[in-house]
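Sample 1 of the test manifest.
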Amino acid sequence: MRAVYVLGVGAHPWGKFPDKSQLSLAIDALTAALADAGASWGDLQGLVAASSRFEGGMGWGLHANEVLQAVSETGVPAVNVGGGCAAGGIAVHTAASMVASGECEMIAALGAEKMPKGFIPRPPGARDDATDTDYLRWVTMGATNPTYWALEARRRMHEHRTTAETFARASVLMHRNAVKNPLARYRTECSVEDVLASPVVSSPLHLLEICAVSDGSAAVLLGSEAQARRLGVPLIQVAGSAVATGRFGDPAVRIPMVSMNVRDGTQHTSEVGGAVETALEAAGMGTEDVDFLEMADNTAWHVLAWPEHFGFLEPGQADWMIDHDELGIQGKLPINPSGGFLSFGEATTAQGVLQVCELAWQLRRQAHGRQVPEPMVGQSAVLGLGANGASVVLKT
Amino acid sequence: MATVDRVPVAEGIFHRSEDGVVLVGSRCTGCGTHYFPRSPSCRNPACQIKSVEEVALGRSGRLHSYTVQSYQPPDLFPMEPFEPYVIGLVELPEGLRVLGMLTGVDPDDVRIDTPVELTTRTLRTTADGQALVTYAFTPSTEEIDS
């Protein structure tokens, strides 16, 4: 297996773009990534797309072949990967593997999504089946996605005495990080009081502690060392990447399940934890080597809980860290210098690709107004519906 | 109440037995793991048998966590009229945690670790006067050894 480098990254700003097609969003992001690398469409030897869930011209969501058909019919391979909201991370891992194996000299991973308004509903087309938990959770109790996160947050308050103010501080931090990020949808600072004054959606979580849904797109161009040197781009290496699924006994209240078998000693959110661990192993690193994280903060609870679940912090330690601003950009373990999902709104399958873009901008010292001081290693972590997880480690 | 027909929101999920309301799940005959709803196989990677049989479960448990829903979920949820309600995560003695609505308790009075038992809750009355019901947990009437 040979080394893989990030040649270029690009993204379309996050927001609501009713007049722009998903395909246009995808093309914009990929065009930006190619321009960032000084490469052209004809240089691409393959394209991996995170299959979107909610829109797409042929009823199957965004596919890489549609993008190639629209812009550059060179005949190169198109690979389309699923995995719910983890699909973006899975796409980057797949593309990296295709370079590492020698199959491609240069390939892109892409995610683009246009989201329906409000609570993410059940995707259309599925049959009403009483053993399908994504049907049951709606019809028997109306369990929205925030329901699941709220159950975790309430339990954390019970176990770790996490306060409403500490959750609010996590949201305040994410919004503060995004103020100078031109790609973020929400770029206004908020206070703990603002967060606590926002409506309670699923107690104990307030509106400003739960990510919105957005439209957005991102692309990452990967290639061999020879390609990186030919293009003269900064040498940012994919030190490790991994995909994982959940382990039996995981206590996570997992969307869209209505029950879980909990076995003592099983890692929480093991699909992401497993990917984080495997990606670090591939990089020959440990959690102590990671200078900052870009992770899925669907809620303020995630900002606190995930670094603990995945071994970056001790259980309960994140409360002290957030209260002392140690998870901030200048802190011991910066979380989501981009502003995270709370400031972007989740464009589901594009999110895992955007995380890797942010890792690259940070490692190149190009994250203006949100730069982590001299980072050498950054790691992403993303979760997808149905126990999919992915993680990417970049190093400079 | 007794004269109103009760219709479950989904078939094959729960039913009323002589012991009260029970959930319909599966139990692996190999490793004994319980599942809800019914499962086509056994997810335990250590189990080589993977043969499941239908089982009644969930008559009682302990509240592990809860949340109050303040906003109306998407259309599939048939509650009418909508009012804020509680969803609980209940630890069952069968070794799994189950999500379900709570009933018979004020949202402000819900406490983690409360013993609960299974019952039903009416979500709405249909046009022909039937009660559309789902399963729900309610604080136990009898003391349960913790």
